[in-house]
Structure formats: structure tokens, C-alpha cells
Amino acid sequence: MLPAVNLKPPFNITRFSHIVLEVNDVERSRDFYVNVGGLVETEFADGVSYLRGLSEACHHSLVLSPAEGSPTCKRIGYRVFLEEDLDKAKAFFDGKGLPAEWVDVPNQGRTLLVSDPAGARIELCASMTVHPRKFLEVHEHRGARAQGLDHCQVIVPDPLALSAFYGELGFRTSEYIAAGDDLLANFMYRKGGCLDLALVPGVGPRMHHFAYIVSESSDIFAACDFASRYGYAENVERGPGRHGPSGVLFVYLRDPDGHRVEFFNNHYTTIDVELEPIRWDAASLSTNVHWGLPAVSKWYFEASDFTGVPLEHPEKLPNPMTLERYAEGLTKH
Predict the structure, then answer these.
(1) Do the Cβ atoms of 147 and 213 come closer than 8 Å?
(2) 3-class state of residue 235 by DSSP
(3) Domains by residue range for the chain, with CATH
(4) Where are the transmembrane segments (predicted)?
(5) Among candidate residues 142, 126, 123, the one with its CA nearest the CA of residue 134
(6) Which of 79, 161, 221, 277 supports an S-S bond with 173, CB 3.0-4.6 Å?
(7) DSSP assignment letter at 107
(8) Does residue 159 contact residue 257 with C-beta atoms inside 8 Å?
(9) pTM
(10) Please, are residues 184 and 282 in contact by the beta-carbon 8 Å criterion?
(11) What are the backbone dihedrals phi and psi of residue 129, each rounded to the nearest 5 degrees, phi first?
């Protein structure tokens, strides 16, 4: 049921690179990601905060900029391998009739702003300014000690159709969730881990969450403890728990503007070409978590809009096993 993958794509995307969020109060959001998540601020300029993980050398993986209206996800970003890949990407998107324009972005090399067929706004760049990694500067570490940005999950009306588009760009599937012939989640990658982009069905396009890797399982609990310490105890939305797909330990938090961030320990590797995608049955509770309870309803249905991008509804809304449905079922027995 999965679309074909082009193993020699028209240009070379290497990884999910960065995300740009619009927030109501940049300093408050910055403090959340520094004190709770453990990110470091590379630079604060013109009212914009540029943050990165402790193991990241490139200038930013998270950008917080002032919102002109409601807080939104302005863009998500991918790296391409070479400068020439940007020109190939421009030709590809032009050939598809999809938006593609050159933009100037601080601390990034030449940057191409595009839209995928669902309307999500995406930056492609080949380089950033480089700074010393901070993972050994233990006296500066805070919060969950987030190491690096790993992936994002996007809600779209038709995950199967969009999977075909990203398959054409060389994205492979590590694992997926299905109900019969319906694709309910596709976990796709470029960098050789489990995931760079997850596609799930719903009203979209909307950014469901972005995720940072942490070094130790204890860092996941630290995220919760520091959230409580800094007044964000109620922002711990899901977990700690262990995912079904990928099997990682995780916790999800909402930042001061409601954007969702995940902290988790690392994936297995997937670079070998003979590896087949793993299918998960949507009817199994272990698809949600290996142990513990399902997620609350809002985890499935609330997400961040992309700035200025209209929403489309799917033909059929998903009906996942939520904590509310699970609890209702228990009361009937």
C-alpha cells in the first residue's frame, strides 16, 4: 500500500534541519526552551531568538520570532547536501507547479522557500554559520539537555498522496500505521534514522510536533521536573511513555503558545537498503504505547497552523483510541 521510493532522487535532502515558530512573547518562549528543554541560545537579534541543541554546531534548529497574530508555525526546514541541490530543487518544484522562491534568511546560506502539495511551508538550505558544540560544557547544561533536532510530524488531509510526493524525493518509510488499506501514519526518513517526517491524517496542513533527542532516559523525567519547577506542570501533555512504533521513550510538552515539542531517546538506524517498512495495526493498543494509557484527545487533534496557509479537511476524520474513549470503554465493563 506504500508508494514507491526513488532511491536516486532529483536532489539530495539530508535531514530535517530546523523549525521557525511565531510566538506571542519571544523571551518567555526562549526561557521555556532553555530552562525546560535545555537548548542554548546562539543569538538574539532583531527580536528573534535562535536556539540549538547541545550537540548541534549549526547556528539554529529552533527559531522563535514575534507573532503578528495568533502563534503559528512559520516554516519547517530541511538541509540539502550541496549548493547545486538547491538549483535542482528549484527546477523540481517549478516543474511541479509548486511555489518556490529564493529568500534571504539570517545565518543561513542560499535558501529556497517552497510549499509541498499539502501547502506546508518549507525552507531548503545547504549551509549555516557554525558554532562550538556545547555537550561537554556541563556547567552550562540545563533542563532536559536536548542534544539535537530530529523530526517533525505534520497533519495532512491525505497522507498517502503526500507520501508519494516525499517518496519521489527519496524519503523512505521505517514504520507505518494502517487500518486495512487506510494509511494512518507514515514515518519517513532521509538521514538513516527512523524519522525525519511523520505524516498523519486530519485537518491540515498543521504542524503536530517537533522533536529533540536527549542522551539519557533520565533527561525525559528531567523535562517534566523542570517544567514543574518553572510553572509549566500542566504543559506536560503526554508521557513519559514508550512508543509502539520506534520503541523510544518519550514525553510531549506544550510551550507557552501551545506549540508541541517532544523529547525522546534515540532511534535505531535504517540506512541499509534491504530493510522493509514495519506495519502496525491501528486496532492494537500497543500501537499507541508499549505500556501505559493512550493519549488524550487533544494530542491527536490540536496542532499549530502554518502561517497564512488555508486548511483542508480530509474525506474522513480519524477516530483514534484516545484516553477518553479508553476510559469510557472501561466504565461499560
Answers:
(1) yes
(2) helix
(3) 13-138 (3.10.180.10), 151-325 (3.10.180.10)
(4) none
(5) 142
(6) 277
(7) T
(8) no
(9) 0.96
(10) yes
(11) -65, 150
